[in-house]
């Protein structure tokens, strides 16, 4: 009489009482349910159909003018046309927007103002002669 197969190493392994179970050995990670495996198989089938369609177009002896890659089209749409539905205004993005919009303006305002004040102070002290501008040389 044949005995039952020994349990797998995953079933025998248990976490140490002094430490938690590593994420790599968590049964939820590697022991996927049949429903999860079915969904993954469906996704893989869709990807393989799209890949086969693309390769057929690519290796066609008389190829069309433009070979469309549906994944690339979806990616380009998500990156260019579909920006606002995926953008979340947060305090960080609001702060960064203000810094990038107002930061350079305020920086140059203070730099030019400090330079003008420094020159004016030197003119009042008599250490700097104000340049004279004439229209006719």
UniProtKB/TrEMBL annotation:
Localization annotation: Mitochondrion inner membrane
Q: How does it sit in the membrane?
A: Single-pass membrane protein
Question: Which is a Pfam family this sequence falls into?
Answer: NDUF_B4
Residues covered by region (Disordered): 1-37
Please tell me whether the keyword Heme is annotated for this protein.
no
Q: Which UniProt keywords apply?
A: Electron transport, Membrane, Mitochondrion, Mitochondrion inner membrane, Respiratory chain, Transmembrane, Transmembrane helix, Transport
Transmembrane regions: 94-112
State whether keyword tRNA-binding applies: no
GO CC annotations on file:
mitochondrial inner membrane
At the top level, the lineage of the source is Eukaryota
Family according to the record: Belongs to the complex I NDUFB4 subunit family.
Q: How does it assemble?
A: Complex I is composed of 45 different subunits.
Cited function: Accessory subunit of the mitochondrial membrane respiratory chain NADH dehydrogenase (Complex I), that is believed not to be involved in catalysis. Complex I functions in the transfer of electrons from NADH to the respiratory chain. The immediate electron acceptor for the enzyme is believed to be ubiquinone.
Q: What is this protein called?
A: NADH dehydrogenase [ubiquinone] 1 beta subcomplex subunit 4
Q: Which organism is it from?
A: Hylia prasina
Taxonomy-wise, where does this protein's organism fall, top ranks first? Eukaryota, Metazoa, Chordata, Craniata, Vertebrata
